[in-house]
Amino acid sequence: MTARAIFWAACAACALQAQSKNPQDLGVGKILVAPRGSVDPLFAESVVLLVRYNPTDALGLMVNKRSNVAVNDALKEFAAAAKHSEPVFVGGPVELDTVFAMVHAPHAPEGAATVAGNIHFIAGRASLEKALRAAPANAENLRVYIGYCGWGPRQLDSEVRRGGWYIFSRGEDIAFDAAPERLWQKLVDRAEGRSALLQRPLIP
Predict the structure, then answer these.
(1) Residues 172, 116: contact at Cβ < 8 Å?
(2) Which residue in 74, 155, 175, 203 has the fewest CB atoms around it within 10 Å?
(3) Does residue 55 lie in a domain region?
């Protein structure tokens, strides 16, 4: 094998680690990226972090849908939210009256579940109150979500098999991206680049 062939083979191997379309790669902490032309408008151009995945159901939060509504406006019933003027994220189309949060911290806050590395998921009201109280105003390590993405038994696996999602690893690097509005474009370009790379012939 020539140097050029070795180079392209190595690039293909690295790209394979970046994303897949195999349901066996699903799991907590993985990132789902909707392909271009998604048939479901509710998930078009979305990037979803899986915070729960098991044989009976799956739950995820869109991490790239930042709204124009401030946390203190959306969560008026939470006393600890008063100092938080950062925007709420739309976590998904299901139950938009439901509130969740994610925290980026070395240790999981009380009542939180670790999703990936230093990313922790908060679902309970008491835990959310404590997280809001502990975080400074305009905190960069706390994000609040309204609504979520939900799937029934093996429903998500079926969607992946039909080509409905790309699966990315390393959700910790993606969940708190500083420019969420550009996140989908960046990831779908990477996924399509990987596909093109694998189709490129290895010329000796």
Answers:
(1) yes
(2) 203
(3) yes
The answer to whether the beta carbons of residues 125 and 75 sit under 8 Å apart is no
Q: What is the pLDDT, as a whole number, of residue 192?
A: 86
Run of H or E residues at 32: strand 31-33
Amino acid sitting at position 75: L
Check which CATH number belongs to the domain holding 152 and give it.
Answer: 3.40.1740.10
Cα–Cα nearest to 172, from 128, 121, 134, 98: 121
> In 3D, which of 122, 72, 64, 120 has the Cα closest to residue 89?
64
Contact status, residue 172 vs residue 29, Cβ threshold 8 Å: yes
Question: Considering just the CA atoms, what is the radius of gyration of the chain in Å?
Answer: 18
**In-domain check, residue 186:** no
Burial class (CB in 10 A: 0-12, 13-18, 19+), 138: exposed
Residue 200, in any domain of the structure = no
Tokens linked to 187:
């990831």
Domain membership of residue 137 as a residue range? 22-178
What residues contact 35, with CB distance under 8 A and at least 6 apart? 163, 164, 165, 166, 188, 191
